[in-house]
Design goal:
The chain has 138 residues and is mainly α. The chain has 8 helices and no strands. It has helices at residues 2-22, 29-39, 41-48, 51-57, 61-79, 82-91, 95-122, 127-132. The chain is elongated.
């Protein structure tokens, strides 16, 4: 008889846990804004795109950011809960988190460079297209 009640308690607790996960509060705009500020996402995003690439599109860096910012923030809001964003904000304010905020843009840029380099040298993609958009010097 006691086993049945323990089983019911475990089932109830599991159900409450899953209910909590399924009803996680979406990230608030304020929390996402704070995360973007801490991570300097605007500056890092603008640094990735070369001015020549923007010129081809008829944009400057600020115009580019104004177009992409709402989409990026919506992506974060769609995929992260308020609790997750707050946890990230707390982490990135620690010494380890601050160290990662410095290292990650360089790692991201290097990753981007390796991917483009691989595409240029290991596919049949026309290299002149890459040169035209300004990524011929990788």
């Amino acid at each position: 008889m006691q086993l049945k009640s323990i089983s019911q308690i475990i089932t109830l607790l599991g159900g409450l846990f899953l209910f909590e996960l399924s009803h996680a509060q979406p990230a608030s705009q304020g929390s996402i804004d704070q995360l973007f500020d801490i991570l300097e996402i605007k500056q890092d995003t603008q640094a990735i795109i070369q001015p020549r690439q923007l010129q081809v599109l008829g944009l400057n860096q600020e115009q580019f950011w104004q177009g992409v910012e709402p989409e990026l923030k919506q992506l974060y809001q769609k995929n992260l809960s308020e609790q997750e964003v707050q946890a990230l904000n707390r982490f990135y304010q620690t010494p380890e988190g601050q160290s990662l905020t410095v290292q990650m843009p360089f790692l991201s840029q290097e990753t981007y460079n390796h991917v483009i380099n691989h595409m240029m040298h290991n596919t049949s993609v026309n290299n002149s297209l890459f040169k035209f958009i300004g990524i011929d010097n990788i």
